[in-house]
Write a structure and sequence with these properties.
alpha+beta, three-stranded antiparallel sheet, 9 helices, about 35% helix, Reverse transcriptase zinc-binding domain-containing protein, RVT-Znf
């Protein structure tokens, strides 16, 4: 009775106090001697009613010859390092020392690629030293928010929190999953560009980074297209420009 084995019990340990006569018993001592079945009278005499019911509810499999250890967290009963690591991380993050209160579900529900949502997770966990630059300390970042049509979100008085973590959690709680997704993708792009600049020791935008028009091949005509979406109005617009391989304007259209 020293091992956790009770069926249907959260911890599977035999509750105490127990009668002194059961301390040295094993499970096989609760079975009939001649065949594999619970000795109902013996079980009911030795244990309380609720414990006896749990014991008798435990099914006995006649084909099992030897006991074996199994990892109950996995369906196949086998332990894996991957699951062990996951279990350890859940325990660590769930502890008061490492737990961060916030709208984590809002981050994972954002309509954005997983890599972008993972960036928000890292920001809110305090893993990125340059997290404040993603908001308004950097002029390039401010211009990026404006170009993405998200200036109102950046400068909303409701979101003027003291740090990036509070800012992100507040946006996730007050904006739609679409807006949160756009903000998430924008933050990922700004962070990606900043990381690339720092890795290459580049202080700013270079000529190579600028997008320039390139002429088409001989006897080909290039058509450049741009579209615009007016949020909330249901309206869209489109513009087309045709040029030959020398770059000369041929025709255009807007609608």
């Amino acid at each position: 009775m020293h091992d956790p084995w009770l069926h249907g019990s959260a911890n599977r340990w035999m509750p105490s106090p127990q009668p002194a006569c059961v301390y040295q018993l094993s499970v096989r001592d609760l079975l009939h001697e001649n065949y594999k079945a619970w000795n109902i009278v013996k079980v009911q005499n030795l244990f309380s009613k609720d414990v006896a019911e749990k014991i008798l509810e435990t099914q006995l499999v006649s084909s099992v010859r030897e006991d074996k250890l199994v990892w109950e967290e996995e369906r196949n009963g086998c332990y894996s390092v991957k699951f062990g690591y996951k279990l350890a991380m859940c325990y660590i993050i769930g502890s008061d020392k490492y737990h961060v209160v916030g709208n984590w579900n809002g981050i994972w529900k954002a309509q954005a690629p997983h890599k972008a949502r993972h960036l928000l997770w890292r920001l809110c966990r305090g893993c990125l030293p340059t997290r404040s630059r993603l908001l308004e300390r950097c002029a390039v970042a401010r211009d990026s928010w404006s170009a993405a049509g998200l200036s109102s979100v950046l400068h909303n008085a409701t979101y003027q929190q003291t740090n990036a973590m509070d800012y992100i959690f507040t946006v996730c709680s007050n904006e739609s999953s679409d807006i949160v997704g756009r903000v998430t993708m924008l933050l990922w792009r700004i962070w990606h560009n900043l990381h690339k600049l720092q890795s290459n020791n580049v202080s700013g935008t270079t000529e190579a980074d600028l997008v320039r028009w390139e002429k088409s091949a001989l006897d080909w005509v290039k058509c450049n297209v741009d579209v615009a979406f007016v949020s909330g109005s249901g309206r869209t617009s489109v513009g087309l420009c045709f040029r030959d391989n020398s770059g000369h304007f041929m025709a255009g259209m807007t609608q």
